[in-house]
Amino acid sequence: MITNTELEYKGNLYPNQIINFKQDVDKFYFTTENGVVLQITVLRNSALRFRYATENVFEPDFSYAISEVASRGYSSLEVDETATEYLILTSKLKVLVDKKTLRIQISDLEGNIINEDEIGFHWEENYEYGGNTVKMSKITQNAESFFGMGDKATHSNLKGKRVNNWCMDQYAYAKDQDPLYKAVPFYTGLHKNMAYGIFFDNTFRTYFDFAHEKRHVTSFWADGGEMNYYFFYGPEMSKVIMGYTNLTGTPELPPMWAMGYHQSKWSYFPESNVKALARKFRKLKIPCDALYLDIDYMDGFRCFTWDKKKFPDPKRMMAELNEDGFKTVVMIDPGIKIDKDYWVYQEAMEKGYFCKRGDGPYMKGKVWPGECNFPDFTNPEVRKWWAELYKEFMSELGVHAVWNDMNEPAVMEVPTKTAPLDTRHNYDGYPCTHRKAHNVYGMQMVRATYEGIKKYVYPKRPFVITRAAYAGTQRYSSTWTGDNVATWEHLWLANVQVQRMCMSGMSFVGSDIGGFAEQPNGELFARWIQLGVFHPFCRVHSSGDHGDQEPWSFDSDVTDIVRKFIELRYQLLPYLYTMFWKYSKYGEPMVKPLVYFDQEDPQTHFRTDEFIFGEHILVCPVQEPNSQGRRMYMPRGNWYNYWDDSMVVGGKEQWVDADIDIIPLFVKEGAIIPKFPVQQYVGELVIKQLDLEVYYKSGIENSSFYEDDQDGYEYNKGNYSYRSFKLNGKENSLAIQQFKDGDFVPSYTSFRLNLHGLPFTIESVEVDNEVVPLNQVKPNGNNVIEVVKNFTQVLIKGK
Ligand code: GLC
Question: Do the record's keywords include Nucleus (predicted)?
Answer without folding.
Answer: no
